[in-house]
Automatic annotation (TrEMBL):
Similarity-based family: Belongs to the sulfatase family.
Source organism of this protein record: Neotamlana sargassicola
Listed name of the protein: Sulfatase
Domain Sulfatase N-terminal span(s) in chain numbering: 31-360
Database matches in PROSITE patterns: PROKAR_LIPOPROTEIN, SULFATASE_1, SULFATASE_2
Length: 450
């Protein structure tokens, strides 16, 4: 297995604009599929060291493509992480960072934000989303208002409940003996926790959805979208609800692993990935489709045994440490992404938007600051990488190069991630000037984001 070295041998021009020459890709317009899991930790796939179950399809995807060891999300919590993926921007830029959207939330990601779907739709792409949205469920914030022609999924996390004001389809299916009056119950949180609606377009079509069937439902709908649009360029954003708790697996996977229900859930997600990749291959779309697999944040480690592993990294979801933000990432496109490469390039979900823009030769929005970098050269196998000015973490933390500064309520910390990615040794006393530089940079950036 080849390893891409990450040493900065030369300063590489920041390629954040599509005014630069596009990286060479297949002649046809490149299809894009993003598979995003929920609370999957850095150590939760076989190819990242998981035990007690196997992920053969994801392992094969890695062997046929590129696996990243230093890939981070823009926030270690759900909603701002998803916003960062879709827009290439820190959610702080539109006033949102620390929390998530709830069934009672009246707000969401503003439609003034430009998503990957918005960009590709203008390029003539069919745009579809399957799975968990969690960026505001009111019509003006829903996927259909954010560039997606098709939406099928749950509007927020699977441990939530319904918003009684949501539009209900005339053909809605009610489960567990409930009816429309139950759905319209005011203040439903206590009575209907974990009973989430399934939405198609902007209407509820099933409530409460049988969560044991969600992974299969998402997979079948995603395959249907791919086959329906195989003769035109398409963008599919597939956001799994799992392995966010409560965990559910279908009867075909329930009880099949040594790791218990968590392992069963990951095995089913792995099956789903295999189904998507096989659908692309069978329909002659593999060499013309870029597939990106990642997670929205690290594991919710306090929920053991129903939570994943950060793979030796410090802490997990919610935190500013690597276990909260560094996640598995695999990129696959036969003939474009080199086979069996492990890249330790510092990369991020923020980079997905500008990279796709480069590959499809689309202009980036000129009225919005894009925080990500174009890493098309990295995924095509170039050993040179764009130099990142800084990377922010949820809470008070910043990374510049391999140096990371963290400010908690109790102390200030400095870590060298090159030698200590586990963040065990606080070296702030050894490098006070370095810490002060990063602190000053963090403070100035915080002001600019307000």
């Amino acid at each position: 297995m080849r390893i891409i070295s990450l040493t900065f041998l030369s300063v590489f021009l920041l390629i954040c604009s599509c005014k630069s020459a596009p990286t060479e890709a297949p002649q046809k317009q490149t299809n894009v599929v993003i598979i995003y899991t929920d609370d999957l930790g850095y150590g939760d796939l076989s190819c990242y060291g998981a035990q007690g179950y196997s992920t053969p399809n994801l392992d094969k995807m890695a062997s046929e493509g590129m696996r990243f060891t230093d890939f981070s999300v823009s926030s270690s919590i759900c909603s701002p992480s998803r916003a960062g993926l879709l827009t290439g921007r820190y959610a702080e830029r539109w006033g949102y960072e620390n929390g998530v959207f709830w069934p009672y939330s009246q707000d969401g990601m503003p439609a003034t934000e430009v998503t990957i779907a918005d960009m590709l739709k203008k390029q003539g792409y069919a745009t579809g989303m399957v799975g968990k949205w969690h960026l505001g469920h009111k019509p003006e914030f829903a996927p259909t208002a954010q560039g997606f022609n098709m939406y099928y999924g749950i509007p927020f996390s699977n441990d939530m409940w319904q918003d009684p004001e949501m539009p209900v389809a005339s053909h809605v299916v009610f489960n567990e003996g409930y009816n429309l009056d139950d759905f319209k119950t005011k203040n439903p949180k206590k009575k209907f926790r974990n009973k989430v609606p399934l939405v198609e377009g902007n209407e509820v079509i099933e409530w409460p959805v049988n969560q044991a069937l969600l992974t299969k439902k998402y997979t079948y709908k995603a395959k249907e979208f791919i086959k329906a649009n195989k003769n035109e360029p398409f963008f599919l954003y597939m956001a799994h609800s799992m392995p966010h708790i409560p965990l559910y697996a279908s009867k075909d996977f329930n009880g099949t692993t040594e790791r218990g229900l968590f392992g069963d859930v990951i095995s089913e997600i792995d099956w789903s990935v295999g189904e998507i990749l096989n659908t692309l291959k069978v329909n002659g779309l593999a060499e013309n489709t870029l597939v990106i697999f990642a997670s929205d944040n690290g594991p919710w480690i306090s929920k053991q045994p129903n939570a994943g592993s950060a793979g030796g990294l410090r802490d997990g979801k919610f935190s500013p440490y690597e276990g909260g933000s560094r996640v598995p990432c695999i990129v696959w496109q036969p003939g474009f992404v080199p086979k069996g490469v492990v890249s330790n390039a510092q990369t991020s979900t923020l980079d997905v938007f500008p990279t796709i823009a480069n590959l499809v030769q689309s202009e980036l929005p000129n009225n919005l600051k894009i925080d990500g970098l174009n890493i098309a050269s990295v995924i095509s196998g170039d050993t040179k990488i764009p130099e990142r000015d800084y990377f922010l973490y949820r809470g008070n933390a910043i990374r510049v190069g391999n140096w990371k500064y963290v400010k908690t309520k109790k102390e200030e910390q400095l870590f060298n991630l090159l030698t200590d990615k586990e963040e065990v040794k606080n070296v702030i006393k050894d490098y006070p000037e370095k810490a002060n530089l990063l602190k000053s940079k963090l403070d100035s950036i915080a002001v600019s984001l307000q």
